[in-house]
Amino acid sequence: MSNLFETDPWHLITGKWDSEKIKDYEQALTVSNSVMEISGAFEENNNKVKLQNIWLSKPAPTAKGYTGYQAEFIDLNKIEILINDQKIDFAADQIEDFVLDLDLHNGLLTRSFVVIRDNIKCHICFKRFLSAARPDLFVNQLEIHNLGTRPLEIEIHSSLDTYYNEESKENDWEILSNNSQGNAGSLVLITRSNDFGLPRFMAGAMAHYMTDLRSAASTEFSNYKAENWFRGTILPDQKTYFEKRVVVVTSLDHASDQEISNNLMTESDEADNLTFDELLAQNTEIWEQRYNQADIIIEGDNALQQSVRVDTFHLLSALGVLKPLSWLDEAFYLPAIIETGHFKEAQDLLNERARELSALIENAKVTGVNGILLPELTFDGFESEPNPDIALFGVHRTAALVFAIAQYLEFTDDEEWLQSTGKELLINCARYWQMRVQYSEYREQYVVLGVSGPDQYEMNVNNNWLTNYSIKWGLQYILQTIPAEFDEGSTKELTNIAEKMYLPEFEVSGSSIKLEDDEFLQKDLSKIAEKLTIFDQPIAKKWSKDQIARSPIIEKPDVFMAFYYDSLNFNQADVKANFDFYQKYLVHDTDISKGLTALTAGLAGEIDQALELLESGSSQFTSFNRYKAAVTRLAVSRGFLGLQVQNEGLVLNPQLPEKLLSYEIPLIYQDRFLRIKVESSNCQILMKNGSDLTLKVNNNQKVLSDGASVDFPL
């Protein structure tokens, strides 16, 4: 596990202070909600907030001539403390009893320490959180306790700070208004004009202060920050109280800067009607509801429990975040949140793709085909990554969208959405594949040339197995799901493509090995990941593109994606054969690779190896990453538990790694709420509520009713 924190099932906590690791702490303690994201930077350090679903443009070599990136806003968190006219300095002051603690129950981040300087001794404690109940609200509480024998003169400088540099050309925002007086301060900003005719966004922040200190005039006025000063005296063994509440309002919800200013005042006043404890209780209640439907409980591996819960925290923190949108949202994030009952948020992601439909159609037309072509990363439907080879990746991204739609429909049975929105997406996926393939007279089958799968080490190849299989599987699903949307001629052609799709494979000991692409076996297969040294890592930076292209080294496992998408159509022996063949070539250079490989190991029956992969993939606490978080959950639900959906029922093939005593996972399926616990010799399934459900567990079938539980032997 990471050496940043102690092993604790519900906390990222440390009593160590290591100035060399401050950036690691900031990254690992990042918290987020649907409006903003803030790192774990300390109050006296710079900490710009990132705004969710708002993007900024910059020139780039893309088809549209620009890229988008997540908007960085202002520092909402800035609080400087002066004790007897001298700022706290971690480098110069004596610091004792340091504690840093992120409570995963509710996202409350606590930092406390004792400052000793000359005749001064005082305890400082910050407590802050982003509200899940009020996503526009950030709250930071500060308490200073005089532990010395003399009075302390305290001065607090708190600000909303843009860190604006008038000489810099990199500033993203223009300031529309700046107000600061008494116990409040506010800023309203607008993104700078761009060369692309793209929308400009506005955002505002207002800070309200609650304190027993007196307000003081600032002597350092700046147009680029709203700063409030406070002063007071703390007698020995006395405490002072200071609270900073910040609300953020954006033009995603309000049309003008005046509306933003008015709503800042309204939202601030509403929050001020509640105490810190009441606001925290609201937030905690939302998190309790979320965990009730999502929390995975692991017995027998405390470190894994901690890392899985961190990923669950990140997974749930991302609810309501739509931009930027990646094919990874369809492939992993949507299936993970839909298992936890967040059907609305899943539909919102799919509806966002529907809103991008005209851009996705244009992407396809640029490459000479009809239908839709999904970008790697997008804010508006067009490619936002500086990658001109968008056509190479279209097939597997389209497959991710079809998979996401299939998952949504299976878990919700939402026929109305299919008819109103989903079918148009599916029709255009089929159109794209219909023109992307070509018939090979040589093979007498359909092939896909000049393509890349998710593994970006294998670029511009012919007949990547995953992409070819995805077309076969995807077209069959689309024709089965919306057969009335295709005329007889189109149905015949699409069926013919699916039936005659070339799949590059070869046989080893009676098992079919799915080839990365046509040329994979011509590579030097002795160059395997197990032989690489630290001097080779990371491959993308240490090796040339030519060297990578000629090696069998794999960034992340393409073939394994199909076993995940269509697990019902592959037997365990075939999955195991491919797992054994490919894992030695994997370098896991992406956040999702080890989780996806762990999932595949579970499908292969290699459950102990699946656990090892999941543990090693969670060995570092990184910042907010909804894709890694999603793959972690899926590794447990689809890999350990063997969850599959078949003919209006659930299929489970649960396994328990030898190292674990048990694991328990909640699952929402249509109107049913299940809790599933796997122990050494038994799988118990409780239906907390819902209509009758057919279950097939390890080939034993039973019907489960509301309030009942059933046991299956492993």
From TrEMBL:
Domain Glycoside hydrolase family 65 central catalytic residues, every copy: 327-616
Domain Glycoside hydrolase family 65 C-terminal: from-to ranges: 643-701
GO process annotations (BP): carbohydrate metabolic process
InterPro entries tied to this protein: 6-hairpin_glycosidase_sf, 6hp_glycosidase-like_sf, Gal_mutarotase_sf_dom, GH65_N, Glyco_hydro_65_C, Glyco_hydro_65_M, Glyco_hydro_65_N
Highest rank taxon of the organism: Bacteria
One of the record's GO molecular function terms: glycosyltransferase activity
Domain called Glycoside hydrolase family 65 N-terminal: residue spans: 16-251
Protein name: Maltose phosphorylase
Organism listed in the record: Xylocopilactobacillus apis
